[in-house]
Amino acid sequence: MLRVAVDFDGTIVENEYPAMGKPLLFAFETLKELQKRGFVLILWTVRTGKLLDEAVELCKQNGVEFYAINSNHPEEVFDTDTPRKLDVDVFIDDRNLGGFPGWDKVFQTLCPNEPVQIAQKKVLSRYKRKGFIRRLLGI
Ligand SMILES: [Mg+2]
């Protein structure tokens, strides 16, 4: 199954580093849908210590727990022979060439055979119920 490294600031939340930004639209919904499909998610962030704990906790509160954090495996021990680059299939990062494409695009790219974008649909129907779309459009 695909291993995916996911950046935090600017990717899962708006980049307010070292403060905590607001979650990006569809971020957690998409990550949860990817996990349901067996994708292995690794958090890949510059955060350490307390700032890292806050990020991990926010993800947990939103239903996303990572297989590993800043490492290939939970129990990985780093030494001089351990590459610093993660051994993953895909990196999701707002500093990619071309910038961050958005979580809808991430889902479409990683799950090209999905007939519907389940995560997005769920969120949109929630917003619709709240009249969010109507207010947004001013109708
Ligand atoms: Mg970033």
UniProtKB/TrEMBL annotation:
Report which residue ranges the record marks as coiled coil: none
Keywords for the protein's UniProt record, in alphabetical order: Hydrolase
Q: Tell me which SUPFAM superfamilies the record gives.
A: HAD-like
The terms under GO molecular function for this entry are: hydrolase activity
Work out whether the entry's keyword set contains Hydrolase.
Answer: yes
- NCBIfam families the UniProt entry points to: HAD_phos_BT0820
Report the protein name in the record: Hydrolase
Instruction: Please report the organism this UniProt entry assigns to the protein.
Output: Tenuifilum thalassicum
